[in-house]
Structures are given as C-alpha cells and as structure tokens.
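JOB MANIFEST
job_type = single_chain_structure
chain_count = 1
residues = 240
[input]
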Amino acid sequence: MADLTLKTAAGKDSGTIELDDEVFGVQPNVSLMHQVVTAQLAARRSGTQSTKTRSDVRGGGRKPYAQKGTGNARQGSIRAPHFVGGGVALGPKPRTYDQKTPKKMVKAALRSALSDRANEGKVVVVDSWGFESPKTKDAKAALDALGITGTALVVVGRDDAAAALSFRNLPKVQIIGPGELNAYDVLCNEWVIFTKDVLPAGVSATAAEGSASDEVGVSADQDSAAPTSGEAETTGKEAS
C-alpha cells in the first residue's frame, strides 16, 4: 500500500495514511473508462425528441387532385414528406439511450480513474474539515492552504453538512457523496479530495486469499472425513 501524507484543513501535515492498492494502485484501463463514461453520458440523454410523420400532421385527408388528366404526378395527400408542411420521413422518435454496463465494469472504471489521479499526485486526504458553520470563505481558504489549483472533486460525508454548504458556491469545486463516486466525475476534475472517514478501500488480497484457502481447507477436511462407497461397504460387512 502506498503512503500518503494526511493533511489538515489548514494545510499542515497530520501524519500518514495508506491508500489501498486495489483502489488507488491498479493499472488504468483507458478503454474500460471510455466505455463506462460513454454509457454514463448516454444515460443522461432524455430521449424525448420527436417528429411528426405524415399520419400525425393535421390535414391532407382528401386527394389533392384527380389521379389522371392533370399532367402531374399522382398524389394521395398534401401531407406526404415531399410536400411543404408535410410529415417527416424517418425522423427521430422517443427512445432510450441506456446502455447495459455490468457493475464490475463500473467499479473497475472507478478504480482506474482513482489510480490515474493517484499516479499524478492529485489525490488529497484531509483529516477533517472542522467547519463550525457553513462559510464559503473558510472553504476557499482551506483549498488555498492545501495548494489546490484548478477543478476539484470534494467527497463529503453525509453528516458533514457544514462542509457541503461551504464548498457548494465555489465555481471550480464539485461536491459528491461517497456513495455517488463515479469515474466520469473523477476524470472531469483535476483533483480528488477525501476526508479520512470517506476514503474508499477495497478487499485486501491477503484477506481474499485467506478466505479462499479456508474454504479449500474445509472441503479437503470434509473429503478426507467422508468414506468412499467401497470403504463404507467394507465397514458394514465387518460390523455385521
């Protein structure tokens, strides 16, 4: 795990904190992030655009002129697409642009985005903001003390209402909850700022390997304890 200097709201060092390698230390997958971000932007589209076909346009119920004898091409309605004021041929209709994206891909894209920001040194962890009351002035002073320039994504806990209200009026700051963190917002901002209590962490590899070995061990013990069919028959004959 990589060590990161823990900061205070005043910009001073407050110790070190470890970043989980499963969240901040993976190799960024650019194609995966592109696919997930494209799906996220597609889901934002309302899909309510609509045009009228020749059956939706008002009027044009009668035949404009006789079928023969006029020298013109035969026409059945003045609301056909090639007439002025007619319907639209093959125009857009209401639809959904949602793309099915597996949850594992969404989480992997988020880990890639956070790892990319961590590799660039653009991840900051603050001990706590400690705002007694909502003040935009205090939020701006805290960002200046931390050396944050450019756009920043501030991850605020649900119980820290003072911090959320303090940062929300800053034009280059985006506020987000820990449960709403996503790859698109991370990539849209130069900096990602966490507090110590909302810093994301994954399942460590040691714990995962241990649980897997435990399951294997249990199954192996059960297999060794259970006799085979031949042994069971032999045991039954000896007992009789």
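[summary]
The chain has two domains: 2-45+98-198, 205-239.
The longest helix spans residues 205-225.
exit_status = 0
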